[in-house]
Each structure stands twice: as structure tokens, then as C-alpha cells.
Amino acid sequence: MVNIYQNILQAKKEGKKLLAVLIDPEKINLENLPSFLEKVHQSIATHIFVGGSTDKNNQTEKVVSAIKSITQLPIILFPGNVSQITHKADGILFLSLLSARNPEYLIEQQIKAVPFLKNSNLEILPTGYILIDGQKETATQKVTSTKPIAQKNKTLIVNTALAGEYTGKNLIYLEAGSGAKVPVDESIINIVKKSLTIPLIVGGGIRSKKQLNATFNAGADLVVIGTAFEDNESFFNDLKK
Ligand code: 1GP
Description:
Layout: H1 4-14, E1 18-23, H2 33-42, E2 47-50, H3 60-68, E3 75-77, E4 91-97, H4 103-117, E5 123-131, H5 139-144, H6 154-166, E6 171-175, H7 186-195, E7 200-203, H8 209-218, E8 222-225, H9 227-231
Parallel strand pairs: 1-2, 1-8, 2-3, 3-4, 4-5, 5-6, 6-7, 7-8
This protein binds SN-glycerol-1-phosphate (1GP).
Protein name: Geranylgeranylglyceryl phosphate synthase
Keywords: Lipid biosynthesis, Lipid metabolism, Magnesium, Metal-binding, Phospholipid biosynthesis, Phospholipid metabolism, Transferase
Catalytic activity: sn-glycerol 1-phosphate + (2E,6E,10E)-geranylgeranyl diphosphate = sn-3-O-(geranylgeranyl)glycerol 1-phosphate + diphosphate
């Protein structure tokens, strides 16, 4: 069995940076999957995340099974809600939306997930999820009916991340939102990174190798990219091993 969290901790210790390719089950074309994954395999990507704010046609399990049949990379669910949980993946980001005060996404969805998780082999990754304003109203904001934290509120962002660590989260995810116009600013990543002892995930609006490297250099341990690969698969050419 893959030990996802131990591998993330080990990479952090060694200063090895991790990249997750986000596959949205609502958007991926299964016929394209083999060629898409071939590009993933030739790139520096280390993880595959599967999820989206919604999955109207319940495609997640089918998509995860198809990915699993082709890749050795760890597959981690990044679910918008409890209906997107499938045992076919390797792990699950067990998210708590810490940036706002909607109990449904702070604890209710998590309670609803327990019957699916308690007899499952999915590795559970307790994750504090913090939405940061990426200058675009994202699907996550709409679905969760919450507002992101403004990028200028640095103290609030740091304290929210630290509250996550102190309440036992194993990971903090700074999220500008899928397709964000503005990714999480490097200065924010930097101060959050300096405050935390647990690994830091950053995603949303990262579209170039330059931005990816800047995000890593600012302190992200794992970066998540989805839209840039959906829009232009040739982006993988810039990220060859
Ligand atoms: C979204 O952080 C991820 O949840 C990835 O965002 O689609 O903008 O790369 P992008």
C-alpha cells in the first residue's frame, strides 16, 4: 500500500517538490485519458488529484478506475462533496473549509463521509482548506456559499493556517480557486510556510513553469495544477522530467 502522507513528509524533509495534476471528472474525456496520462508520466508530476466542486453525472468512480488502470502514481480524491468518494482511489484529502463559517463544509460533509470511510482502505489526509481571493468567483465559492479571504489579510490567512495545524490537520491547502486570475501571492505562501511545521499545498491559477517555480520557491511543498493542462496539454512539454 502506498503511504501517501509519509511520502509527502519525506519529500518535504529532502526539499523535493511535488506536483499534482488535477483531473476533473466532469471535464476529462475518457478516450483522451491514455494520451493525457502519457504526458503526465513524462512530466515531473508526482500525484494525481481527482475531483471538482460538482460531479453532476457521477463520473468520479469510473474516471478513477480508468486512471488506476494506466498509472502507478498515487491517486488522491479531492472531493467537492461526499458523493465523490470512491474506494478505487489511494487516498482522500479530507477537507475542512477553514476560511469561512459554513458548517456544512466545516464538519457536516465530513460526518456524512464517515460511513463510506470507516471500512475503506483509502488513506485519509486531514487537510485544512483555505480559499484565498483569486480575483474570480470560483465554483468552490458558489457551491459552498462562502467568500474567500482577501490576499491583503495576511495575518488572518496565517492564523487560519496555524489554527488548522493546531487542531490536528496534517496538511494546509491554500486555494485561489480553479481558473483563478491571480494565484496565491508568493508573500503569502512564504509567511504561511514559515509559520507551519506541516506540509503546504498551493493551487489555483498557476499556468506557467515560471509561476510553478515561483510557488515552489516561495515555500509550497506540493502544487496543484488543473486548468492549465485542460486548456493546453502542450504545457506538459515545459514540465518534462
Ligand atoms: C483547483 O487548485 C486547483 O482546486 C487547481 O487550480 O485549475 O486553476 O490549476 P487550477
